[in-house]
Design goal:
The protein contains 9 helices and no strands. With 230 residues, it is mainly α. The termini are far apart.
Length: 230
């Protein structure tokens, strides 16, 4: 038993244990140090890149606010190409797409929105990009492409807004019943945070009144026809 060993014997046993285990102990210490410093380095790198991307993104928004689209695009592309692992890349692409759409540069807007859909790690931003892409498709009079842009995904909190765009697309396609259903679904899922829903209600009211208007016009047409025969 250890308590009956002499000091010399205990020292010899400790020395033997150290010789048998020192390599694994030192390896464990080295690995722990590498992990700690590696983690700190990674955190520092992420923070540094995020600050740099944020600074550039602020420049993009300032330039867009000053209506300097070309220079804003240069900086936005810099963020997209070199800081694509930060959320500012997707936000820059969305900002440029919104600006381009407002300026009538629909192809450029769609390219930026496609990038967000394909590359963003943020599911909410991807859903927003799909919504805006569908709106741009409607702006270039391609309602079927707008419906395709919204298909096959769970819209989450964007469900009501997706349905509004679907309603607009169905209207352009002349599919009145589908448009009516889409607007009704949008109103059912509308939340106060989405703003004023009166425009959606107006679109639905116009559709609901359309059949009545068509019926009241028919007798007038027949009367006119009858008068022409007399």
């Amino acid at each position: 038993m250890d308590e009956f060993l002499s000091d010399k014997e205990q020292a010899e046993r400790l020395k033997k244990w150290w010789l048998d285990n020192y390599k694994s102990i030192l390896a464990g210490i080295i690995i722990a140090v590498v992990i700690i410093f590696g983690w700190r380095y990674w955190q520092h790198r992420v923070q540094t890149r995020s600050v740099a991307a944020s600074t550039l993104y602020n420049q993009v928004t300032a330039l867009l606010g000053a209506n300097n689209g070309p220079q804003a695009l240069q900086i936005a592309n810099q963020i997209i190409n070199h800081y694509d692992d930060t959320p500012y890349a997707s936000q820059s692409a969305l900002a440029m797409a919104q600006y381009d759409a407002a300026m009538g540069k629909h192809d450029a807007a769609m390219q930026m929105l496609d990038w967000v859909i394909r590359n963003s790690k943020d599911g909410g931003l991807r859903l927003l990009a799909r919504l805006r892409l569908a709106r741009v498709k409607l702006a270039v009079d391609d309602p079927q492409a707008a419906l395709t842009a919204l298909a096959g995904v769970k819209p989450g909190g964007f469900a009501a807004l997706y349905d509004v765009v679907r309603g607009d697309a169905y209207m352009k396609l002349g599919k009145i019943n589908q448009a009516r259903n889409a607007y009704q679904q949008a109103l059912h899922q509308w939340t106060p945070g989405m703003g004023d829903k009166s425009l959606v209600q107006m679109k639905l009211d116009d559709l609901n009144q359309a059949p009545t208007t068509a019926v009241t016009r028919a007798p007038a047409a027949r009367t006119t026809a009858g008068a022409s025969k007399q």
